[in-house]
Amino acid sequence: MAEQRDAANQATWIDRFSGLPEARRSLILLSPAFALIGAFGLAPLCLILVYSFLVPGTYGGVVWEFSLDAYIQFLFERDIFDGTLAFNASYLQIGARSVILAGLAVVGCLLIGFPTAYFIATRPPGLRNVLIFLVTVPFWTNLLVRTFSMMLILRDQGPLNSILMDIGITGQPLSLLYTDFAIGLGLLYSFLPFMVLPIYASLERIDFRLVEAAYDLYANRWKVLQRILIPLSLPGIAGGCFLVFIPSLSSFLAPDLLGGGKHLMISNLIAQQFGTARNWPFGAAAAMILLSLVLIALMIYARQTARRERKVV
Amino acid sequence: MTKVFQAGSAESVTALDEVSLAIRDNEFFTLLGPSGCGKTTLLRLIAGFEQVTQGNILLFGDDVAGLPPHKRPINTVFQHYALFPHMTVAENVAFGLRMLRRDKAEIRRTVETMLTLVKMPELADRKSSQLSGGQQQRVALARALANHPRVLLLDEPLSALDLKLRQEMRLELKTLQRETGITFIFVTHDQEEALTMSDRIAVLQAGRIQQVGTPDTIYEQPANSFVANFMGETNLLPAVLGTAERDMISCLLEGGAEVLAQPVGNEAAGSRVTLSLRPERIVLSADPGTGLAGRITDRLYRGTDTSYRVKLEDGPELLVYEQNVADRSSGMSAGNSVGVLIAPGAARILVS
Ligand SMILES: Nc1ncnc2c1ncn2[C@@H]1O[C@H](COP(=O)(O)OP(=O)(O)OP(=O)(O)O)[C@@H](O)[C@H]1O
Ligand SMILES: [Mg+2]
Asked: Is residue A174 part of a domain?
């Protein structure tokens, strides 16, 4: 008896739900996702935004008082004695270094990633899957561990330097570690799969009979690449560049470990401000600046995609 | 030449087996054969996408073995068209000329002429991915012709078109070939297409050439039973050779009926052969007394003609086509006894 009543109750509950209008139904179903994104995504972001307009507390934290100082500090230095503002490029340099290193990482990943993806896409299907699987192998290990191993390789006494010395390219160990070069290499290594995978995905979809048709129409290898392969894999290339640029720009580990904390990128600046420097509003402002850089990159990407779509349709 | 795919491995496929062909300049040459017989492979060898396993390919006297596809004065209309989806129709047609670094004005002029030739100048700025099958086929044709190659390879270019358009394009292609003087190597598995368009036809089966000749030779004098059977309908009849009478030789069918055929080679009397007898060469008479005695077992109206199945007394069953001419509606139907007239020379003795 009780079971039957339960079943009936349940039925009415479901009936009532399915009776709701479509929009209401989706709202109810999506509400857990909204709650999660709101609580752990949007709320902290708003908090950071608010903090960036406040005054730093002496021992960390914030004083609830409106101020634009955090943003001004990014470009100017306030004289301790008379309080006048003088232009200070050091933070701007960190921002510029972040953008340049991320850009170089994109270029490097593209130069290595495209041929790699092309190589994989032109193998027999069975081998292709194996190779793609191998591309994802680095993801099995923690990025921190991988960055540490990069440090070991680049050290003065590391394998790279001993090889260079053995083959006589250099007499003394080159100081590779703790340089911009090391950071760039670290970014390249960390995010290369993000370039290879989307390019592979779009190359794999290309009908390679089109390549034959181009050869038939007197195109040489270079022209085939330029006129057929690159245009047809452009969505993958754009996606890959974007996927490498964003995490590179906000990368923390590579500059922290491989740059030795001397060559800061914007994420290290943020960490520093929230940590040792105890200037939360400045850290928050730097985070907002990073966010806007990312948004600019996103907008460029979206514009490009929209233009391409218009052209295709 | 010979082409073996995955030579040496367990699953090696001999796609072409000692094929030898001489195609003349300005010729409309057709490769005809059933699916999988090696037609596309042969074209790919000529275009340079595959390398011959054994033998060589000469193009106007020069061995092209080491020449990559983009260095051969050959263009292809692919079985699957292979238009570049990211380019417009005009860009597709201009592609070859651009690669040849032709003058801009010349390219524009040629593209215009080509698109007019294939009757779609108004679609020049369409993306090639937005065309119907027939339109794509025309663009593929224009794209290949624009470079004015010395040889044009066409791989079943009409197979995706509907009957009406196909018939129209057959005429257009034929005219085009005559006007441009380009050598066409045309692939098809449609015997009617081959017969109507070609100067010469090579019939392929299982990687081997069965016969090369003009359409009427191939149709009237098939070299073997495969060619006879593949080129339209035919009755293949086992027979025993009798004695020669004047310029004809008598052949005895099963059941004793006698048919006169032109002798080929010097087959001895009493040897077993196969006769090919085209259904349209047999005439039926309502009077069972004339010719060979037979009985109609089946009758099928087919528009331009009527097809009958006629069983000879104690002998084989024959397929017969009778033109539906207005004043000759014979009114014969299944079950009727008829006379079967086979003119001397209508049947052909097949060597193998
Ligand atoms: N790359 C390849 N590897 C192995 N075998 C192949 C390859 N290409 C073709 N073949 C085989 O060679 C034979 C001839 O193929 P081909 O494509 O030339 O046939 P076709 O006459 O063009 O047929 P269709 O009329 O269906 O287009 C077939 O048995 C095919 O399976
Ligand atoms: Mg084929």
From this structure: yes
Compute, in angstroms, the gap from residue A217 CA to the centroid of ligand 2.
Answer: 20
pLDDT at A34: 93
Q: What is the residue range of A259's domain?
A: 90-312
Structure confidence by residue, pLDDT tens digits, A162-189: 888 888 887 788 888 888 899 999 999 9
Question: What pLDDT sits at residue B314?
Answer: 80
Q: Is A154 part of a structural domain of the chain?
A: yes
Asked if B24 has any chain A CB less than 8 Å from its own CB, the reply is: no
Cβ atoms of A241 and A251 within 8 Å: the answer is no
- Between CA A185 and CA A143 the distance in angstroms is 14
Tell me what ipTM this predicted complex has. 0.79
Which of residues A111 and A74 earns the better pLDDT score? A111
Instruction: Using a CB–CB cutoff of 8 Å, tell me whether A229 touches chain B.
Output: no
Structural domains in chain A (count): 1
Sites in chain B below the pLDDT cut of 50: none
Residue from the list B70, B76, B143 with its beta carbon closest to the beta carbon of A220: B70
Higher-confidence residue: A282 or A20? A282
CATH code, domain carrying A244: 1.10.3720.10
pLDDT per position as a tens digit, B222-236:
888 899 988 888 999
Proximal ligand: closest to the CA of B46: 1
The structural domains of chain B, ordered by start, are 3-228 (3.40.50.300), 236-350 (2.40.50.140)
Q: Which residue has the tokens 């509950």?
A: A13
* More confident: A12 or A195: A195
Give the Å distance between the CA of B156 and the centre of ligand 2.
7
The pLDDT of residue A202 is 94
Pairing outcome for strands B248-253 and B58-59: unpaired
Residue A18 falls inside a structural domain:
no
Q: Which residue has the tokens 């597709």?
A: B92
- Give A8's pLDDT tier (boundaries 50, 70, 90): low
A119, part of any domain: yes
Of A212, A223, A312, the CB nearest to B99: A223
State the DSSP H helix or E strand holding residue B259, giving kind and residue range, or none if neither: strand B258-262
